[in-house]
Specification:
Elements: H1 7-21, E1 27-32, H2 35-44, H3 51-54, H4 60-72, E2 76-81, H5 89-101, H6 133-151, H7 156-161, H8 169-177, H9 187-201, H10 207-213, H11 245-266, H12 275-281, H13 294-299, H14 305-314, H15 318-354, H16 359-368
Parallel strand pairs: 1-2
Bound molecules: zinc ion.
Residues 225, 227-228, 231, 237, 241, 243 line the site of zinc ion.
């Protein structure tokens, strides 16, 4: 009970303790206000219920102990549902006893002694895990991934921006993981997802990273953007080069019009709302003068909380809301992220050609340095991204 506490667990435990105390061959009537307990008991009592399914049920060790006692003690159990908080004298006195029992030492169940125990997993020496392990592990792994993302130095610039422009992490994760071409498995899907991850992590192969990884091919010192010839070209600069801001703002206005039409078409909000006026006022579509705008996050594959709030105002249906957010992200990716990367790629290609930095030379360099330190993400041929 100390680890993974829940009200259902408390109820199951109270019934388990009753079954421990009753004599063998008893007929027992259990009056409970928990419909969940009654339904789960009836499900598990079905002989078709497999052991594999049982392991997906919360508190499965406790349930196994209950069924073990029922079988070993030849108990005949009848369950009755009573209304909660309805002045039922016996129910009230059971509640009172439960409250008094809070001061007692906790009860520990050792699932290792169960004859059905295949294995008993614990976490952090805190007690057995009594949940669907696949779901539990998924949550734990997502926390680990998030922690490593937060501590990744390449993400420092993005996280600094996220202090003022909040990120909707749930939808960001869905957007990055989303299938891009509706196929089960494809090279195109992998390429786009790879691009999204690199864009988010700021590890797209810009000159600064190439220079770090091919020190003998690239000239030393800062490599300036060939468009503005003033600022260093890196992941942060893409799309926010002063010479490209007009293009960015024009594309943003174009997206805005399409987005207003989409919202108007599928809005299910009650009452008349001026969608156009709300979208026009949104910070997402404010004219951009530097990278201190929510657009920076969107260009790096993050769903801005401003976008989520805006969509939430007009769409109440959760599924529709998600599909509208994805619609916007796709539009942004197609009309802004992709063209800006293509532009950067062509400018850098010309720059490299002028300095005779060829793909062949990079391959040769990699072969020569194979035994040295592993080459970073921006080195491998797959990272020479050409977005299809
Ligand atoms: Zn520039």
């Amino acid at each position: 009970m100390i680890f993974q506490p829940s009200s259902t667990r408390a109820k199951i435990f109270s019934i388990l303790t009753c079954l421990i105390t009753v004599p063998n061959d008893s007929s027992i009537n259990i009056y409970t206000d928990s419909q969940n307990f009654i339904s789960t008991y009836n499900n598990l009592n079905n002989s078709c219920f497999s052991h594999r399914k049982l392991l997906k049920i919360n508190n499965h060790h406790t349930w196994q102990a209950i069924f073990y006692l029922v079988k070993e003690k030849s108990l005949d159990i009848s369950l009755h549902k009573v209304k909660a908080h309805d002045d039922d004298v016996l129910n009230n006195s059971a509640d009172l006893l439960a409250k008094e029992g809070c001061a007692l030492d906790p009860i520990f169940l050792n699932p290792r002694t169960s004859p059905n125990a295949l294995m008993v997993l614990t976490f952090n020496l805190n007690g057995p895990l009594e949940k669907d392990l696949r779901k539990w592990s998924k949550n734990a792994l997502e926390c680990c991934n998030m922690l490593s993302t937060v501590n990744n130095t390449s993400n420092a610039y993005l996280f600094n921006k996220a202090k003022t422009h909040l990120i909707d992490w749930h939808n960001t994760s869905l957007w990055i993981k989303r299938n891009n071409d509706n196929t089960i498995c494809s090279d195109l899907n992998d390429k786009i997802t790879g691009f999204k991850i690199k864009s988010f992590n700021h590890t797209l192969p810009t000159s600064d990273l190439q220079q770090r990884n091919y020190p003998n091919l690239y000239p030393p010192g800062p490599i300036n953007c060939t468009a503005c010839n003033n600022l260093v070209i890196n992941n942060e600069h893409i799309g926010f080069c002063p010479t490209h801001l007009t293009t960015l703002n024009n594309s943003l206005q174009k997206i805005k019009k399409t987005f207003i039409l989409k919202l108007t078409e599928i809005s299910d909000a009650s009452g008349a709302m001026d969608i156009k006026a709300w979208v026009e006022r949104s910070h997402i579509f404010s004219p951009v003068t530097n990278d201190d705008y929510p657009v920076y996050l969107i260009l790096h594959q993050c769903v801005s909380s401003v976008l989520t709030s805006l969509v939430k105002m007009f769409i109440k249906n959760t599924k529709e809301r998600l599909s509208t957010i994805i619609f916007f992200m796709k539009l942004f990716f197609k009309d802004i992220t992709r063209p800006f990367w293509k532009l950067h790629y062509s400018l850098m290609h010309a720059w490299k050609k002028a300095r005779n930095i060829t793909r062949k030379k990079k391959i040769k360099y990699r072969r020569k340095n194979k035994t040295g330190n592993s080459i970073n993400t921006a080195d491998n041929p797959a990272s020479q991204l050409r977005i299809p």
